[in-house]
């Protein structure tokens, strides 16, 4: 099972938006392969991902949630091949180490504000120091970007010095908000409706394929 963790200790950076669309892509890619089973898990008390799954229409490529049994810890459903884990704000310490041990990759969403940059810098430093993170692929995705702003320039200067892949700069658009309200992702609607956004996701899709190579 391939485990992709979406993490940043700063709240409101787009972790759930990114997690749902990553799961949507994997489910869409595996729709023609019966052996592919995708799970979207949530270790946040708010359970945003779980609530989103409850809105997802029947008939779309399936995304499972945690297998929940009374008195038992949450676990991936049997046969899961890909798991996307949405994490809470403030993730640190033993919980962070435990999740990193399970992960093949960590994707860090980052918005263009000084508060997000400072929180993310400290988080990336913590990741680099974790023994459990050795061999784990780490990448950054810039979220809600307006390239005309000074904050976008500031973010680009910061990411240029990270020494990590920056997979994409996703634009600030209501498409994500409107789709999420119906349990949908960019991959569940006609491509013409979200053409600009799907284009921005191409390098993320390539990186995900490289993880499995």
The end-to-end span amounts to 14 Å
Biggest sheet record: 7 strands, parallel
Please, how many domains? Answer: 1
Unreliable stretches covering 5 or more consecutive residues: none
Question: Measured on Cα atoms, how large is the radius of gyration?
Answer: 16 Å
Beta-strand portion reads: 15-25%
In which range does the helix fraction lie? 25-40%
- Identify the CATH homologous superfamily: P-loop containing nucleotide triphosphate hydrolases
* Strand order in the largest sheet: 3-2-4-1-5-6-7
The geometry reads as: globular
What's the helix count?
7
CATH architecture: 3-Layer(aba) Sandwich
Quickly give the structural class: alpha/beta
Oligomeric form:
single chain
Top CATH class: Alpha Beta
Order of helices and strands: EHEHEEHEHEHEHH
Say what the CATH topology is. Answer: Rossmann fold
List how many beta strands DSSP finds.
Answer: 7
Mean pLDDT: 93
Supply database-style keywords:
alpha/beta, 213 residues, seven-stranded parallel beta sheet, globular, 18% strand, Rossmann fold, 39% helix, single chain
Descriptive overview:
This is Chromosome partitioning protein. InterPro entries: CobQ/CobB/MinD/ParA_Nub-bd_dom, DNA_Partitioning_ATPase, P-loop_NTPase. Residues 4-185 form the CobQ/CobB/MinD/ParA nucleotide binding domain. Pfam families: CbiA. The protein is an alpha/beta fold and 213 residues long. The protein contains 7 helices and 7 strands; from the N terminus they run E-H-E-H-E-E-H-E-H-E-H-E-H-H. The mean pLDDT is 93. The longest helix has 17 residues, at 195-211. The protein has a single domain (2-211), classed as Rossmann fold. It is globular and about 45 Å long.
């Amino acid at each position: 099972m391939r485990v992709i963790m979406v993490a940043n200790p700063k709240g409101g950076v787009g972790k759930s938006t990114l997690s749902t669309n990553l799961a949507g892509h994997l489910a869409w890619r595996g729709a023609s392969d019966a052996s592919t089973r995708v799970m979207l898990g949530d270790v946040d008390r708010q359970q945003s991902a779980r609530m989103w799954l409850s809105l997802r229409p029947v008939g779309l490529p399936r995304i499972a949630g945690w297998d929940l049994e009374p008195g038992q810890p949450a676990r991936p459903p049997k046969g899961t091949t890909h798991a996307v884990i949405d994490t809470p704000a403030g993730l640190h310490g033993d919980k962070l180490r435990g999740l990193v041990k399970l992960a093949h990759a960590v994707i860090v969403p980052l918005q263009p504000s000084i508060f997000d940059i400072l929180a993310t810098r400290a988080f990336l430093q913590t990741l680099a120091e974790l023994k459990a993170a050795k061999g784990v692929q780490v990448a950054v995705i810039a979220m809600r970007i307006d390239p005309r702003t000074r904050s976008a320039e500031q973010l680009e200067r910061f990411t240029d010095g990270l020494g990590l892949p920056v997979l994409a700069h996703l634009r600030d658009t209501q498409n994500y908000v409107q789709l999420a309200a119906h349990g949908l992702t960019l991959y569940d609607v006609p491509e013409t409706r979200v053409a600009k956004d799907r284009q921005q996701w191409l390098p993320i899709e390539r990186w995900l394929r490289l993880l499995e190579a």
